[in-house]
Design goal:
By secondary structure, the protein is an alpha/beta fold. Helices cover 49% and strands 21% of the residues. It has a seven-stranded mixed sheet with strand order 3-2-1-4-5-7-6, with helices on both faces.
Length: 238
């Protein structure tokens, strides 16, 4: 099983020997890969739609993983039984849906040792949700695939210190580790925000005043993040 860079990064965050539940499994690639590599003993491939589960079933059979991987029709983790999984992957869906799954699955997830989350949007809101609901982010990664950027995080139950605005938005671990993919993303985002701001300033001011202030604030946060990302040597040169 060959995974995309995004899925490979997600899979790498699953702890070895964990019983996995892959929520929104689609083709079942992550559980197949992890079982094939011998990293996990078993998995449940879960999806809310029958179509993706059928595709996952076909792939599971193709790779002869029927004894290790089960499929299950489930809205989020609602059909996951207590103490049935050590690790839950929720990847490739919007941040609002990720938070909905976490909220509706609280009773089941209390027994889960770790979450691997890869929201496609609203990641700052997801981080705040985790903080407010007794989760702690223990690691973060970010990859770029086909010119799209994908941040992801490893999460466990516990207390997380409140983050600064810049950390909610871009990730405390990614900033601290000066993640090069985040650095590339910040430069691209700055260019985009600068272009938006220039276009807004050409329009009647009263009509776009609030939007200008919003973009200026985002641009200031972006530039602050880029400053944090600089090495001591780069700061001295600047």
């Amino acid at each position: 099983m060959q995974l995309s860079d995004r899925l490979q990064a997600v899979a790498s965050m699953v702890t070895e020997n964990s019983r996995l539940a892959d929520v929104g499994t689609d083709h079942g690639y992550i559980p197949i890969y992890l079982c094939e590599m011998g990293k996990i003993p078993s998995a449940i491939a879960m999806d809310v739609k029958k179509g993706p589960l059928l595709r996952a079933k076909m792939n599971i059979e193709r790779y002869h993983m029927q004894e290790k991987i089960r499929i299950r029709l489930s809205d989020g983790v609602l059909k996951l039984n207590p103490d049935e999984a050590d690790s839950v992957v929720i990847a490739g869906m919007g941040g609002t849906l990720v938070m909905k799954i976490l909220e509706e699955g609280k009773k089941v997830l209390v027994d889960v040792k770790e979450l691997v989350l890869q929201p496609q949007s609203d990641i700052d809101k997801v981080r705040k949700y985790l903080y407010e609901n007794d989760y702690v982010i223990t690691a973060e990664k970010m990859v770029c695939e086909e010119e799209k950027y994908y941040p992801m995080m490893h999460v466990q139950h516990g207390h997380m210190e409140e983050l600064a605005d810049i950390e909610w938005k871009y990730g405390a671990f990614l900033l601290k580790e000066k993640n090069p993919v985040l650095g590339s993303f910040l430069k691209k985002e700055e260019t985009t925000l600068t272009g938006v701001l220039q276009n807004l300033r050409q329009q009647p001011k009263e009509r776009v005043k609030e939007r200008i202030l919003e973009i200026e604030a985002l641009l200031a946060l972006n530039r602050k993040a880029q400053k944090w990302m600089k090495t001591e040597e780069e700061c001295e040169k600047a």
